[in-house]
DNA sequence: GCTCCCGCCTCCCGCGACGTGAGGGTCAAG
DNA sequence: CTTGACCCTCACGTCGCGGGAGGCGGGAGC
């Protein structure tokens, strides 16, 4: 089976230019050429391209991929095993980044100040020095000021008060429901969870169900957020989290 | 408080050249200069640099960071949400890739030939949104990989024959159990499912219960794998899959 | 035969986010 | 007054391609 560049490109989801590039640097040279000079790729080339694409997606530089693929000590099964490990690891790291973003969004919403360490939590290689630590303390202070300044710039006082009123009203009804002994996965609790989601959407940012569930998990996992709700009513963080989960499931 | 480039660079964990670059493109211009032309960064510059670093680690390009920081009308939350979507999208894609790898592993194990379409199916809706990341540095640690590669490289013909023999022995006992009418979620079937998992672990790759269940689903969903087991004994694919599920649940 | 158009070829400039010098001025310590 | 660490401004190199120019090959229709 022989394929032209265009066919290979369409099948593999890369551009023709990319295949030309791989040929140029010797990473993937087609099995042969037609008399007119057209590149002719065979099945072995496709298999190699698949491995290249996976390693590329994992962030390996091309020259290293060439070294890995041309290493005679590594059989194809070993490549697959390795890629499986790398992929799961990579997913874990991306999840950390997503969690960091969710933390940032939620911290902005509640005006909770992140410690510099938390902000750099997504950095793998950050080592605090003495001088750096001093600077971080200052940065932390000014950051809180910047956030609050920005918020007052974006919302008028009326807006802010209205938001606060809506929020407190929601909180009161939530507490009332809890103390009346209604289950967290009841229709009423789910309705309030939905209302919570829409409050976030209206005042802060668009919050689909998936994100809402992530937030719910954070409310019970991160003690600062837990404290925020426990201050309203003991057990509220867990109750709200369960209601959010139930609501998300029922709407899915 | 005024700092030189070097001091700022050390404190923030970036290179001097990076600060020069940020100055060149106007992303972070120092508050002033000394008479000799030295850059003098003040506290506000440090704060801005910290935010730049933060957004960069979250994967934002420099021009977008400039937009976020300089446009008073820009909503940081919207950018965070966009980045959140981007990252979750990438996670989903990586999960598909993991599934494709598992398919390729099993296909190789059972000597099934993949078509080019299947090979690249996971890249179907690929869009040029290449995020070159240093994942390789963190996850590409070649230590474990080389060990496993060496181990499989040392598999001799005898080893392979022994593997085959063990596999066939397991198959015979599985068939015997099936034909005797024992239920797929019985203790005996679960024991054989567990043995299957350990065979994979010993001979091919580490196979936790989660992965084992994925494989089980593939055995019934993909007709080529189904055929592999049906050739051993009719109904075996479904029987094995059910046993694997039961085993995974009981061990969890 | 001739045209038409698509796909292929090579050559080459451009990008983003810096790295890496070259060649030279500045500053504090010894 | 020297030394060595630090700073400056060019300016070109890197990686993994994107995109276009200018030209050739191949099959369909006239």
Automatic annotation (TrEMBL), chains A, B:
Source organism (scientific name): Micromonospora mirobrigensis
Q: Where is the HTH merR-type domain?
A: 2-71
Keywords on this record? Activator, DNA-binding, Transcription, Transcription regulation
Q: Does the keyword Membrane apply?
A: no
The cross-references to InterPro entries, in alphabetical order and at most eight, read: DNA-bd_dom_put_sf, MerR-type_HTH_dom, MerR_fam, TipA-like_antibiotic-bd, TipAS_dom
Q: Which SUPFAM superfamilies match?
A: Antibiotic binding domain of TipA-like multidrug resistance regulators, Putative DNA-binding domain
Q: Does the keyword DNA-binding apply?
A: yes
The cross-references to CDD domains, in alphabetical order and at most eight, read: HTH_TipAL-Mta
Q: What is this protein called?
A: DNA-binding transcriptional regulator, MerR family
Please provide, alphabetically and separated by semicolons, the GO molecular function terms listed in this UniProt record. Answer: DNA binding; DNA-binding transcription factor activity
Q: Show the taxonomic lineage.
A: Bacteria, Bacillati, Actinomycetota, Actinomycetes, Micromonosporales
Question: Which domain of life does the protein's organism represent?
Answer: Bacteria
User: What stretches pass through the bilayer?
Assistant: none
Which PROSITE patterns has this protein been placed in?
HTH_MERR_1 (PS00552), HTH_MERR_2 (PS50937)
């Amino acid at each position: 089976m022989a394929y032209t560049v265009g066919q290979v490109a369409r099948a593999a989801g890369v551009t023709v230019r990319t295949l030309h590039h791989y040929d140029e640097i010797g990473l993937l040279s087609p099995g042969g050429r037609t008399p007119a000079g057209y590149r002719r790729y065979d099945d072995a080339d496709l298999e190699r391209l698949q491995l290249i694409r996976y390693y590329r997606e994992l962030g390996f530089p091309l020259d290293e991929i060439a070294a890995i693929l041309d290493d005679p000590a590594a059989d194809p099964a070993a490549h697959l095993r390795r890629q499986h490990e790398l992929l799961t690891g990579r997913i874990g790291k991306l999840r950390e980044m997503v969690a960091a973003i969710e933390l940032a969004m939620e911290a902005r919403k509640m005006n909770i100040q992140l410690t510099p360490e938390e902000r750099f939590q997504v950095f793998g290689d950050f080592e605090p020095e003495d001088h750096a630590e001093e600077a971080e303390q200052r940065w932390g202070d000014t950051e809180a000021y910047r956030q609050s300044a920005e918020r007052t710039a974006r919302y008028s006082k009326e807006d802010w008060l209205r938001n606060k009123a809506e929020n407190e009203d929601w909180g009161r009804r939530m507490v009332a429901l809890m103390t009346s002994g209604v289950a967290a996965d009841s229709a009423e609790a789910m309705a309030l969870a939905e209302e919570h989601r829409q409050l976030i959407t209206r005042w802060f940012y668009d919050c689909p169900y998936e994100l809402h569930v992530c937030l719910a998990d954070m409310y019970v996992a991160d003690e600062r957020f837990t404290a925020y709700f426990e201050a309203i009513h003991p057990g509220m963080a867990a109750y709200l989290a369960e209601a959010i989960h139930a609501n998300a499931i029922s709407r899915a």
